[in-house]
Amino acid sequence: MIQFEQVSKVYAGGFQALKNVSFSLEAGEMAFLTGHSGAGKSTVLKLISLMERPTTGRVLINGHDLKRIKRNQIAYARRDIGMIFQDHRLLMDRTVFDNVALPLLIEGYSMSEARKRVQAALEKVGLGDKLRHYPMMLSGGEQQRVGIARAVVNKPPLLLADEPTGNLDPKLSAEIIKLFEEFNRVGVSVLIATHDLSLIARMRYRTLTLKEGRMIDDGLAEESA
Amino acid sequence: MSVLFRARQQGAQQVKISAWRRFVTFWLHHAQQCIGSLGELARYPFASLMTMAVLGLSLTLPATLYVIVKNTDSVGANFQQASEITVFLRQDLNQQQVSTFAKRIELNEAVAQTRLIDKATALAEFRERSGFGEALETLDTNPLPDVLLVTPQEEHRSPAAAEALLQELKQQREVDEARLDVGWLQRFQAIVQLVRDGFLGLALLLCIAVVLIVGNTIRLNISSKRDEIMVMKLVGATDAYIQRPFLYTGLWYGIVGGVITWLATAALLWWLSGAVRDIADLYDSQFRLTGLNLAEMGVIWALAIGLGLLGSHIAVRKHVRAIEPQ
Questions:
Q1: Which residue in chain B is spatially nearest to A94 when comparing CA positions?
Q2: What value of ipTM does the predicted structure carry?
């Protein structure tokens, strides 16, 4: 599903965020990406979601070299990737419904079809009754779940999450992770970047570890052991 | 179209919507975004109206100048038609010779008509109108010459042709002096041309100003929605999709701005019409200001809309592209 081949990334200021990183994630796999802040977790996610381009090396998704994706194709490529952020990036002046419906309307769904799907996605995250609420009226955990509903509403085969539990207490965090597990169970590949080691410890998922831009553990050796 | 997952069917295809339905949906979305941007403008009516008024009033000046030039042209045409050659005959001619001369000139193919003002009539008229009546009584003889007013044929009324006719008349034995004041006509035409060129340059500058103002307003609009645009890009919106509401905003600026131009121009002309009527009355003229006709209003509207769209297009091209999610 995702394949990094000796990827390095140097930012404009000369900061080297990734050094020769190689790993691959199979279709239908769920994995954690961990490391201290500044280790390069976000850069990995940005390279997958085409927010950044690698300085050297190749990033492939489903066998497609992202280098070949032209600027005007990026929007279409992102429709295949559901993204979840620590700050959930909701539009505060729009209702929950409008927020979740956004990817569908962009893709050209009719309003009636979009309504069905948004309802289904919100039911899934347990917010079926909050359609007309504004994000400000919801708790942090609920806002994060709206973000998740928006990421999965058009059923992308790949889900990326950047510190999805960053602002949440352990109980809410566990609920969020449970949601990801449910999506993973129906075949969605999930990559979650987090520095919450206690969260990872409770799960038995593959864990990739970055340190100062290098992949020090791709989680495979441990699994076979 | 899925770029990364060929087998994955997306959106409209997945729910099996026909090409026709998708075509309809496309235009429906356009209509929604069009109405949506109007709603957005209505949320800040004062700010929106200010921009529209700037656009409208900026175009009012060229529109009014255009109307003035148009009216000046029609006045100029009247003047040109009035071009008349005044022929002063020699004092020593008798009445017989004068009327023979008048008839001969009338037969000239360049001449449309002639009017003879004999010296006695001229003196009577002068006495009546000038207020020198008593002074004239003291004169022994009539100092005024017989005068023949010659109106050239239609095709001989241009300054050059009239000048040629004037020269021909001057050659006549009976003629003492002949006058055609083409000088003022030429000067008048030159001034009209100068005014027209000046107005054109001014109009062009104002149009550029309109584009810049709309562009800047849309730019501010875009940067105030920076976060929203970022989120939309993250969930897969194309630049074209994000740009559309802003382009519609420019369109609405043009539509309303054009109407403001009509109203302001009409108001300005109404304001001027009283003064123009007074001047026309002083000249014994039936001249009245003609406002914009339907076709001209259409052109102004199209211009306003075009400028609004151009301004917003320049802004979105540059600034929507520049916003990238981080």
A1: B228
A2: 0.89
